[in-house]
Write a structure and sequence with these properties.
Helix content: 55-70%
Distance between the termini: 65 Å
Radius of gyration: 23 Å
Mean pLDDT: 90
Largest sheet: 4 strands, mixed
Amino acid sequence: MKLDKYTVGKRYGKALFELAIEKQEADNVYQELLTLREIYHEVPGLGDILSDARLEPYEKDEIMNKLIASYEGMVKNFLMVVYKYSRMNDLLLMIDEYELRYDEHRSLILGTVSTAIPLTKEQHQAMEEKVASMLGYKHAHLINLIDPEIVGGVVIEANHQVIDGSIHKQLEQIRQRLMKKNQYNKEVN
């Protein structure tokens, strides 16, 4: 049975994270994975090239040797295993899974906060503290998105949850209640 790339990404990322925790190298591995992600973004298609069966092995080996030259220890060994099994095109998914587990381990939640106008630094910090507390985390890192359609208030998306405290949503709820009331009055009369 062939596994889809998301399952592969989760398995490899989880395995690396668990090993990094066991060896007490989670922070170092995370930092190295961030530089690796950067390389993948700077050289789009690198994973596909390193996983392409049409290229001669020596050609891929040359590229791979240049890539792993700046890594050592756990990350270098991890890259060699991923390369050996022709999964370099799934590496970003593996890094994402590692990062997800790393953030969870540090009790950090990531998300967005949408507002009609940009939050001040103080508002942003207070919002992060409130969201972390509400969702049971120590820390939150929220990206402030600007959406004039929400009119006012905030919409928070984090950990697959949406907290909609926008004025737009409140107006919509009032409108629906008024429609129900009008419907009821028509039925009674």
